[in-house]
Amino acid sequence: MAVIEGVSLVLPAYNEESAVGNVVCEFRNALEATGLPFEILVVDDGSSDRTADVASDAGATIVRSPQNLGYGIALRRGIVASRYPYVLICDADGTYPPSAIEDLIRLAEHFNMVVAARTGRQFRGRGVRALARTGLRVFSSFVVGRRIPDVNSGYRIFRKAPCVGYFGMLSPGFSFTTGLTLAMISDARAVAFVPVDYAKRIGSSKVRFVRDTLRITQVLIQAMVRHNPVKLFAVLTAGVWTLALAAVLSWVILGIGGIGVLAGVTFLIGVQVFCVGLLAEAMRVRREV
After folding, report:
1. Mean pLDDT per segment of 10 residues, for the chain of length 289 residues?
2. Residues 6+ apart with CB under 8 A from 75
3. Alpha carbons 244 and 261: distance in angstroms, whole number
4. DSSP class per residue in 155-191
5. Which residues, in sequence order, are CB contacts of 248 under 8 Å at separation 6+?
6. How far apart are CA 87 and CA 185, in angstroms?
7. pTM (whole model) above 0.90
8. 40 contacts 100 by C-beta, under 8 angstroms
């Protein structure tokens, strides 16, 4: 077992009275087995049910939000309120196994963040959801230039200080964990992934598939602009030059008049787009120096 100073477990919860009590008890038992000092904070994000009372009865310290402010804000409030240098976050819906705590903590002293990468049928999903998860994994890996098995897992441990330093660029909503993963890896911080089984949630899901997928896509694009803009503009340039090539082929093969001029203009637009990317990259480097 890793020797760290102590760990604060932060559980954001919104209308989770059916699950939060068992989650607190099971995680408390798992943390007690590590022999480390710990605390359990449940951030009641404006719940309209008995989430706070059930969590308190189970032994958690309650951090209350006056209204539903969102997943990312709930995590921020819990992280700021935590008193130990390592923060473990997890959802309060019973989907993540407390048994993985030992592996996460064992690696925590060697990494800036250790992420529990979800596996199993409940995580993969079916149909459009499965396709979206695959696309998200491929896109996020492309953004940082490293394979990411699970970019937005809600179960992870990290050093508190570096995480707080990223608050200004992290989403206040569902995409908080996505942004944190991309930011840490892009900044060459040590991030490890540990596979864990993902179970069916207790209660109803708060995730809205279309809305949250669009938000995660926005976070991915913002991360690419912030951390590796030349890659984004290179992709855009390649797309523009592909159109230019198609125009040239249409002009040569089909003899369509005026296409040659359009191809030349499109090519020049691609050059301009790439130059903007180089300028953005120079500004990023200057900002970090």
Report:
1. 83 95 97 96 96 96 92 95 97 94 94 94 72 78 86 94 89 84 90 94 66 68 70 74 74 65 69 66 50
2. 10, 12, 43, 89, 176, 177
3. 10
4. -EEEEHHHHHHTGGGS-SSTTHHHHHHHHHHHTT--E
5. 259, 260, 263
6. 18
7. no
8. no
